[in-house]
Amino acid sequence: MAKILGIGGVFFKSADPKKLREWYATHLGLAISPYGFCKFQPETMPAGGCTVWNVFDSKSDYFAPSTREFMLNLVVDDVAGMLERAHAGGAQVVGEIADYDHGRFGHFVDPDGNKIELWTPKARA
Questions:
Q1: What superfamily does domain 45-121 belong to in CATH?
Q2: Cα–Cα distance between 42 and 53 in angstroms, integer?
Q3: Is 64 helix (H, G, I), strand (E, B) or coil?
Q4: Domain spans of the chain?
Q5: Regarding beta strands 103-109 and 115-121, do their DSSP bridges make them parallel or antiparallel, or are they unpaired?
Q6: Which of 11, 61, 80, 85 is most deeply buried (CB count within 10 A of its CB)?
Q7: Quick one: what percent of the chain has pLDDT higher than 70?
Q8: pTM of the model
Q9: Which residues are within 8 A (CB) of 115 and not within 5 positions of it... i.e. 6 or more apart?
Q10: How close are the terminal C-alpha atoms of the chain, in Å?
């Protein structure tokens, strides 16, 4: 039987895709290809990292202050450091860094108004 094997990409629209790509490359260090995308290979994922698929209730305020119907989660090696980079690039940092059993989380809103969640997973024991 056919089955889903993972997330193959995250795609969203922007009024100025080139500008937003450049912002992510300049301020967060994404290696944007000549075709306009950034490719993450499984071997770059830290121990304990994974890709999560989840559906939130339409009344959830977890994506606030963004009014978008989606939120992107990026696995990073240093939540605080990446929030500093995003803020230095003009992003709005949202809330405080939070530590949970499954890792450390922080949030910012990018120049297009997308809420981005940063996650450093706890290494598996």
A1: 2,3-Dihydroxybiphenyl 1,2-Dioxygenase, domain 1 (3.10.180.10)
A2: 16
A3: coil
A4: 45-121
A5: antiparallel
A6: 85
A7: 98
A8: 0.88
A9: 63, 64, 65, 66, 68, 71, 72, 94, 107, 108, 109
A10: 33
Write the pLDDT tens digit of every residue in 39-67: 988 888 888 888 888 999 999 999 999 99
Asked if the bond preceding 17 is cis, omega within 30° of 0, the reply is no
DSSP 16: S
Q: What is the pLDDT of residue 49?
A: 85
Q: Tell me the C-alpha distance between 32 and 38, whole Å.
A: 5
Report the distance separating Cα 11 and Cα 113, nearest Å: 15
Give the Cα separation of 34 and 9 in Å (integer). 17
Q: CB-based contacts of 14: which residues, under 8 Å, 6+ apart?
A: 20, 112
Could you give the 3-state DSSP secondary structure of residue 44? helix
